[in-house]
Write a structure and sequence with these properties.
374 residues; alpha/beta; 2 domains; 6-stranded parallel β-sheet; 41% helix
Length: 374
């Protein structure tokens, strides 16, 4: 079978969640001798993180905007290739697709009510584009893939999708996320001057719950005798200042904060290992790859008790109500004060993470392709 896979953003240097899902799954497919020919359709970029092989070809398609790339350039490329199937990997797809379509729909957060707008114009435009296209695309998909049973149920309920047209395939994690005997402090010091810090992967998306994490951190500092610093990824000082003012948190907190901006994926495993705990109390997640990555490194995780996080974290994950900063702070203090709990969470996370792998993801994806009987 000639399978075209849309992976538009994987060559960009600053990759995020869906980009890594596509890239790592494609790398696993590339290892197979399954008789399929894979054509990976990408936009030009500086990070050529994938190489061609006997069963995999890379097709670069340039276009000035994402909607034009997806709605015009992508269908034309697929038609030229003579592909049997198109798999779009990042929530949206061409409204007019010349061949059978499989869609990975990571979430439908953009179709749900929200408490506030994103301050990012890019995120706002993306939200409106998805709201416009996704409901129309789903009717045309031969199969819809999502990343948790929680999200599968949400999609079915919200969009009235028959059970046989949507399936769950869990994400995996990369094998460089593992416990390290020796932590490279040169890498750590690029972002923060010491280890045993609190680690939070924030961004401007309201679902990441950054304002309440900062409030929780201020409560933690009031009660902790250790007062560990907080490393915050993907946020700048202007945005943090705005949140501190919004939440009426003293600016004195800032001397404990480190916010280096984007953290390269190659450095994340070292930072998870160097961290005392990883904070992931999101308001809403469809899967939560960082949750699994941190567990795979043996770093205790504090996550939210909502959406997919209990499903992915499992029954013994340390979970808090993400709307209650005092619960988040209390969980950090418990890990700090209860050595037995800290050891138990470390061991539990290592065991839990073994349930996820990109190999399993690729195995189940191939089963979906084969089930279409094309």
């Amino acid at each position: 079978m000639k399978i075209a896979i849309e992976a538009q953003r994987i060559f960009r240097p600053d990759k995020h969640g869906m980009d890594f899902v596509a890239l790592e799954t494609i790398r696993e497919l590339q290892k197979r001798n399954d008789g399929n020919e894979y054509y990976i359709i990408v936009a030009p970029g500086k990070d050529h993180c994938l190489e061609e092989s006997a069963n995999l070809s890379i097709v670069e398609v340039a276009c000035p905007t994402y909607p034009l790339w997806e709605q015009i350039a992508l269908p034309l490329a697929v038609k030229r290739l003579g592909a049997d199937l198109l798999h779009c990997t990042s929530n949206t797809a061409p409204l007019c697709c010349p061949i059978p379509l499989v869609l990975t729909l990571h979430d439908i957060i953009y179709l749900e009510p929200r408490q506030q707008r994103s301050p990012s114009l890019y995120q706002e435009m993306g939200r409106h584009y998805r709201r416009l296209t996704v409901p129309r695309i789903l009717k045309k998909c031969r199969k819809i893939i999502t990343v948790s049973h929680f999200e599968r149920n949400r999609i079915r309920e919200a969009l009235n999708i028959p059970a046989d047209r949507i399936t769950t395939i869990y994400n995996g994690y990369s094998r460089h996320f593992r416990p390290m005997d020796d932590i490279d402090m040169q890498i750590v010091n690029r972002y923060i001057p010491q280890k045993d810090f609190l680690f939070f992967l924030g961004n401007t998306d309201p679902k990441k719950n950054t304002a309440r994490v900062l409030k929780a951190y201020s409560l933690y500092l009031e009660k902790s005798s250790v007062r560990r610093p907080l490393l915050i990824a993907d946020l700048n000082e202007t945005y943090i200042d705005r949140l501190l003012q919004q939440e009426n948190i003293s600016n004195r907190l800032k001397r404990h904060l480190f916010y280096p901006g984007y953290i390269h994926n190659a450095d994340l495993a070292t930072l998870y290992n160097a961290a005392f705990t990883f904070l992931y109390p999101s308001l809403r997640e469809s899967f939560g790859i960082p949750l699994v990555e941190a567990m795979a490194c043996g770093t205790p995780v504090i996550t939210g008790n909502t959406s997919s996080m209990p499903e992915i974290g499992g029954p013994d994950i340390l979970a808090a109500d993400p709307c209650r900063p005092e619960e988040i702070a209390g969980a950090v203090l418990r890990l700090e004060n209860e050595d037995a709990l800290y050891r138990q969470q470390r061991e539990y996370g290592l065991l839990r993470a073994r349930q996820f792998s990109w190999k399993k993801t690729a195995d189940e994806l191939i089963q979906v392709y084969q089930s279409l009987d094309i």
